[in-house]
Amino acid sequence: MRALAIGAFCLLALSACKFSNHSDTVLPIYGNREAVTKTVNGKTITDTVYQTIPDFETVNQYGKTITRKSLDGTIYVADFFFTTCPSICPIMHRNMLKVYDEFKTSGNVKIVSYSIDPRHDTVAVLKNYADKMGITGNTWWFLNGDKKATYKLAESYLVAVMEDSGAPGGYVHQGYFVLIDKQKRIRGSYDGTQPEQVEKLISDIKLLQTEPASMIAQ
Description:
This is Protein SCO1/2. This protein is an alpha+beta fold. The chain is built from 5 helices and 11 strands.
């Protein structure tokens, strides 16, 4: 199982490298892309269609249904965790608090943390977890959803997640913070256990806030 986990991590890491060259002032767009040819006003044009985060249905720590549409018009950061994690999750979320504190009053930035152990991480458990961290309001949501669907969704974020009875806490997952723009495209991936990577994430969010909605990285 560990070999499978390592293989999956490497595969997703390679997928994350599929982006165009870009300047220092424009963030790349990660993931797969395809050229789509269509006719507009009698002229044939070719557009690039980028990978986006698909629809999902979860419930947050307040018992409210959260879907892809709930994040319309916002920049957001996503990660995958479980509340009983004995290894990287506590470090990740201590670091994520820096992101929360920086943007909790901005109004256009959110954080979503998907539980990979939804059977244990009920709404009540997630609320207690959020309360202990001092999280209030709707800037940071802790989400419970169907387990199989959540694991599949992680692939769309280019994050590997799986059960492993030999791993600490019974799960293997990557500790990435994934930056998503208002068009639901992946714009960055950061090691959530490394403070310098979290500082880079904060800087990139600010850069993304200034980017016109129509801008596409080249």
